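User: As part of a screening pipeline, I want to sanity-check one entry by hand. Below is the sequence and the SMILES for zinc ion. Please return the complex as structure tokens so I can compare it with the automated output.
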Amino acid sequence: MTKKTLLGLYLGLSLLTNQALLAWPTEVAITIDDAPTINTQAIVSTLAANSCSVTFFVIGEQLPKYYSALQQALANNCLIGNHTFDHPNITKLTDQQLVSQITTTEKLCQEYFGTKPIYFRPPAGRYNGANQLTLDRLGYQTVTWQVDSRDWQKPEKALACVTSQLAELTWPSIILLHDQTETLNYLPDLLAWLKQKNIQCVGLDKIISDRKKLTEKPLATNRKF
Ligand SMILES: [Zn+2]
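Assistant: Here is the complex for your manual check:
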């Protein structure tokens, strides 16, 4: 083997390694906040047509009107998470008020879905240490996100927003979307894009355990989980 061939091989391998480091995450979990609404049924159908299961974070006061769409979602392996009763800033609540927000929604979930959620997402991602203690006591795991679609602000840019953020990540990641009319416009394209990049949509439980395994490795990151 000549020196030139060896150099070529070395450069080729370096390029491959760099590409591997720049790869997209291999898996994501999609989460949809502020459900259920009048749009949930159509969102559930789009997800089912793409064999994709997500986690819907529900607002308790919206359940009595639209819960049936989520019963269908559960039958399609989606999960339900607790997102309070009426979407307050929980850092401003007393402990008693927070407990009421969570348990009222929990009771409705048990009534409509026969199950108690185990994941909690604070409205707007805001929570403090005292909230965390209450959530721990109630048996909830607080889940935020790594990729924010900002679809409630600029829905027309949600797809570009998600794909550009994913390009900077290599770890399994949680994506935040919202249950709203505009989501129906970009969701099919987002699901097609994930498929094209071979990024698997997996359950929240899998992403959380995979990220935990990675944090146990010396490969440290300063990314917020
Ligand atoms: Zn919300």
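Points to compare against the pipeline: The radius of gyration is 20 Å. The chain has one domain: 24-215.
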